Amino acid sequence: MLGAMQDWTMRVTHVIDHAAREAPDREIVTRWADGSETRTNWQGIRTDALKMAQALQALGLRKGDKVASLAMNHSRHLVSWYGVAGMGGVLHTVNPRLFDDQLEYIVNHAEDRVMVYDAAFQPIVDRMRDRWTTVEHYICFDSGEHTTSFEDWIAAQSGDFQWVAGSERDPCMICYTSGTTGNPKGVQYEHRSTVLHAMAGLQPAAFNFSASSVMLPVVPMFHAASWGLPYAGAMAGIKFVFSAVNDPAVLHDMMLKEGVTDSAGVPTVWLAHFQYCDANGIDLPPLKAATIGGSAAPKFMIERLMKNGTRVQHAWGMTETSPIGTVGGPTHDWENLSLEERVVKTMKQGRPIFGVELRTVDLDDNTKVLPRDGETSGALQIRGPWVVKRYFKAEEDAVTEGGWFDTGDVGVLHPDGTLQLTDRTKDVIKSGGEWISSVELENAAVGHPAVAEAACIGMFHPKWDERPVLFVVKKEGADCSDRDVIDYLADKVAKWWLPDAVEFVDDIPHTATGKISKKDLRDRFADYKLADG
Amino acid sequence: MLGAMQDWTMRVTHVIDHAAREAPDREIVTRWADGSETRTNWQGIRTDALKMAQALQALGLRKGDKVASLAMNHSRHLVSWYGVAGMGGVLHTVNPRLFDDQLEYIVNHAEDRVMVYDAAFQPIVDRMRDRWTTVEHYICFDSGEHTTSFEDWIAAQSGDFQWVAGSERDPCMICYTSGTTGNPKGVQYEHRSTVLHAMAGLQPAAFNFSASSVMLPVVPMFHAASWGLPYAGAMAGIKFVFSAVNDPAVLHDMMLKEGVTDSAGVPTVWLAHFQYCDANGIDLPPLKAATIGGSAAPKFMIERLMKNGTRVQHAWGMTETSPIGTVGGPTHDWENLSLEERVVKTMKQGRPIFGVELRTVDLDDNTKVLPRDGETSGALQIRGPWVVKRYFKAEEDAVTEGGWFDTGDVGVLHPDGTLQLTDRTKDVIKSGGEWISSVELENAAVGHPAVAEAACIGMFHPKWDERPVLFVVKKEGADCSDRDVIDYLADKVAKWWLPDAVEFVDDIPHTATGKISKKDLRDRFADYKLADG
Ligand SMILES: Nc1ncnc2c1ncn2[C@@H]1O[C@H](COP(=O)(O)OP(=O)(O)OP(=O)(O)O)[C@@H](O)[C@H]1O
Ligand SMILES: Nc1ncnc2c1ncn2[C@@H]1O[C@H](COP(=O)(O)OP(=O)(O)OP(=O)(O)O)[C@@H](O)[C@H]1O
Ligand SMILES: [Mg+2]
Ligand SMILES: [Mg+2]
Fold first, then answer.
1. Where in this chain does the entry annotate a coiled-coil region (chains A, B) (predicted)?
2. Closest ligand 2 atom, residue B326 Cα
């Protein structure tokens, strides 16, 4: 060696060690399902994680073994993120909203040996127990009514433990996609990818975490690593406020009481919060920053948050990308922009953070790379250290030559690097050889004062192949006609994009992650016929 | 493989690729030594770096070869940071303020094959040319008067080049310490350490870089990788404003004209700027953030910047740590603190950013790890991925068991992780078996309205071993007596710390990096005797 820097294996344990050492007293507050509250801190989380790692070893678990969690957001769930990784294990965060068949498939596929779960999900455990063939031990986060309680379980350990060492390419977490088509697919996050993703997530252009941040993440810890917040937050030593229930009244109360500055969730979560405030005639919470992702953030949502003095971070990503790909926030010309200009900019999905790289290719010929001209839309591909190469147990890589992963999304890249997502490959509507963005139609429609939710799908048309039909749920007590909606859209989208029909429905189906399920909507209206179709 | 994330080699070329792709038009402005100005952008920097890499290969340079730069801050110097690394080479940033013997030693020790230099340093080149035995080619950044000009040299290339690939542990830069004792020592920064250091440097607790940042770094590109700013800035796609001269009038002018939001420099640089503003009866520039490091930031400096609305980031680090170790900025209780409390907090050196770890050990027994109690001071040690393991060409590692590097600094660690630097191991004054901090005495003394600069060293004392003597340079036109200074210090430090004598001098010697040179001061006063000594 002619001279070098120190060796340092990028392990997730460095993250919790850092938080416990540099921000030991910074609080982690939990509001539990039963209404009670507990407070711990980074030091406490680390101590409990050490005990949990010991307790797992005592059960016979070894490096590479998988532990499932079936839980909402709370401090004990957080302990398990670090405890399992610290034992060299892999945490499988199971989405409790999945169907039984999916729950069976993913737990068995992952070969989970231990399951830690919330008492609220006891019915799921009771129902699935016989079908989960690999699970040897059940631990309940809240109580010992039906099985060992988490607190008793770890209390039996001393916490005198050395984190299990290993390669930085070892997995530390596995998340499954929700499987809107076929079986869910497992994505293994590595120690290295997790640390890099969190380091990138800290930056001002992304979560902008500093010591003074107080974050209440509404995005669940069981989906896409909760956008990496529990890792990035630990790196910056922020205060976390968790709520095990997603009731807006509870969230609102916690936000005010605990001085919450930052929150993150999918659009429907923000929508529910708006509705709660409106119904009670109260102001939105005084948040400094709101991250919206998982689906496109509609215009009125961005505008309302900005008017509230809240910075909006519009993030795009997916389970396969750990999940942060792009984040939209203030651009360098921000101070010279009007509110309207800021809102319109933020409606796009932002720019890739250092580490990941995007490109678009032709929808019909994926060897043709498209220009970043702000106009041409194509299939969105991504590559980088926190992007999946191969799904868990898959026979082959999920990437093309050059290491690109196809996202299944359709978008436009702008010359300044901004991504504008227009649709999903499978939802885009092809009319007369041209593409119509179902997402843009939906987002325009929800701006109408009487529209609560809207979903657009393509329906067969003998002349145009497909034409858009818009399904609308009206706001409670509000009314409007199909003509009203079409008129409203008229100056917002191209004329030939206007839906051929507007259908009013009582509800729109959602996926396990709270997004509109076009697949279910298509199934429900399989026999639908256009008037001129 | 059971499923994994993508492979991604952490190379510095990803940084410039990212900047050129995601912030192609963000400007890089240079104010040259002759008063002229040029403007390029990240896209332009990358194109020129590709050409430079080609031009180096055309000269016969290969992977691992070293290229020296002898230059101030400007866009062409920046090009060479990425061009050399992109060719697989190692850039050796030479400090032009070193003595000839040191210049000879380091260039030959590094075995630099090419030297790129500013016309302003032509005298150094002329003087040293025969002594630099390994340098085969000289390229001048500004003109072709004496040798090939940089612009002509790279203009001969097409820029159609693929970055040279390699391991992430390959070196990409080498910096030498200024060698206040013995020969300078070379520290090799690796691609990996550089990327990690820059990712960490982006965060709100450190440089807080976002798309809207406009940074004028006064810290030279020839010292300690300019604190990593050229890398972190590229990751965030910030605008850079460089000045090839450090005249405060020029810096001030550029700051106002280019909308500079951030600057960084050692305390003397900030002091010179204050004096310029005072002499001309003008306000400080409206900076959002000022990073001060390299020496302790004195109280009045922090206070004045804060009153100006500027956030102060007080950074500690060294060539051996890439260099960022800790940064002091807003803590989580910031909003509840008075200005005075904020100033006092910021005088400490801040907290380690994720990646590095600190501890203190007993000054007399370095196997004894000291508590983080905010009181016990000891020898400061550091470890992490961007901390040196072995100096270039050294026979053995520079770290102790457990991988700790001894910084040569003395400090106190507080329970909340804050580092308070009290002195250097070799400057600390031992009086009657107790330690006195020379730095604290100096920093208190410069608060006196008549004191321009102060340096404190220990002088032999028959009873106490050593007693502090304070050397003071008075401000132009100001006057004070030794009694005045002692009286002023009386309520600022412990009584037994008060200097035994205050000596007024015309100047205090400085090192090549602009810091007080205690070694030279001690040499100058080698025959000094205390009155009762
Ligand atoms: N900001 C955004 N704007 C628009 N769409 C988004 C945004 N963020 C995420 N998405 C959509 O969500 C997808 C990622 O979904 P995610 O991985 O979180 O869930 P999943 O379990 O794979 O379920 P599904 O893909 O079926 O929604 C993206 O591919 C994209 O289509
Ligand atoms: N914020 C700070 N407060 C006090 N001292 C600092 C601070 N930052 C850096 N220093 C001092 O500067 C040293 C690092 O110096 P650096 O590596 O930049 O230069 P060098 O070439 O090694 O020269 P020298 O070590 O002789 O000053 C640290 O070890 C510490 O003593
Ligand atoms: Mg998906
Ligand atoms: Mg040094």
1. none
2. 1
What average pLDDT is seen over chain A?
A: 95
Q: Which of A189, A190, A199 sits opposite B354 (nearest CB)?
A: A199
Chain B residues in contact with A18 (beta carbon < 8 A): 352, 354, 357
**Nearest C-alpha to atom 14 of ligand 1 is from which residue?**
A318
**Residue of the nearest CA to atom 12 in ligand 2?**
B294
Known catalytic residue at A38: no
| Among A residues 226-245, those touching chain B with beta carbons less than 8 Å apart | 235-237, 239
Ligand nearest to the backbone CA of B176 = 2
Greatest pairwise CA separation for chain B in angstroms: 77
Counting from 1 in the atom list of ligand 2, the atom nearest the Cα of B296 is 3
Q: What is the CATH number of the domain that holds A472?
A: 3.30.300.30
Which residue segment(s) compose the domain that B230 sits in?
12-347
The CATH number of the domain where A385 resides is what? Answer: 2.30.38.10
Residue A119 C-alpha, separation from nearest chain B C-alpha, in angstroms: 32
Q: pLDDT per residue over A364-402, tens digit each?
A: 899 999 999 999 999 999 999 999 999 999 999 999 988
DSSP A363-390: SS-TTSBPP-SSS-EEEEEEESTTSEEE
Q: What is the model's pLDDT at position A533? A: 61
Q: Which of B389, B430, B475, B515 is catalytic?
A: B430
Question: What is the per-residue pLDDT for A453?
Answer: 92
Task: Name the nearest CA neighbour of B259 among B12, B80, B27, B444.
Answer: B27
Report the pLDDT averaged over residues A82-92.
Answer: 98
Q: Give average pLDDT by consecutive 10-residue segment, chain B, 533 residues.
A: 89 98 98 97 98 98 98 98 98 94 96 98 97 98 92 98 98 89 90 98 97 97 97 98 97 98 95 95 98 93 98 98 96 96 97 98 94 96 98 96 94 96 90 88 93 94 93 94 96 93 95 85 93 74
Closest-CA residue of A relative to B418 is: A22
Residues facing B455 on adjacent strands: B471
pLDDT surpassing 80 at residue A1: no
Residues whose CB falls within 8 Å of the CB of residue B209, separated by 6 or more in sequence, listed in order: A203, A204, B201, B202, B215, B232, B233, B235, B236, B238, B262
With b meaning 16 or more CB within 10 Å and e meaning fewer, what string describes A148-167?
Answer: ebbbebbeebeeebebbebe
The amino acid at A114: V
Q: What's the pLDDT tens digit per position in A467-526?
A: 999 999 999 899 999 999 999 999 999 899 999 999 999 999 988 877 888 989 999 999
| Cα A109 to averaged position of ligand 3 atoms, centre (Å) | 18
Regarding whether A466 and A390 lie in a shared domain, the answer is: no
Shared domain check, A304 and A160 = yes
Same domain, B75 and B177: yes
Q: What is the ipTM of this complex?
A: 0.94
Last residue of a domain, one of A287, A322, A347: A347
Alpha carbons A312 and A427: distance in angstroms, whole number = 26
The reported pLDDT for the residue numbered A415 is: 95
Q: What are phi and psi of A325, to 5 degrees?
A: -110, -60
Q: Which amino acid is at A201?
A: G
Query: Of the residues B290, B318, B347, which one is the last residue of a structural domain?
Result: B347
Cβ pair A87, A79 in contact under 8 A: no
A436 and A399 share one domain: no
Q: Is B435 a catalytic residue?
A: yes
Q: Do A208 and B209 touch (CB under 8 A)?
A: no
Question: Are B179 and B237 part of one and the same domain?
Answer: yes
In a domain, A449, yes or no: yes
Domain count within chain B = 3
Q: Give B263-305 pLDDT, tens digit per residue.
A: 999 998 999 999 999 999 999 999 999 999 999 999 999 999 9
Q: Report the 10 Å Cβ neighbour count for B337.
A: 14
Ligand nearest to the CA of B295: 2
- Please compute the mean of the pLDDT values over residues A25-29 and round it to a whole number: 98
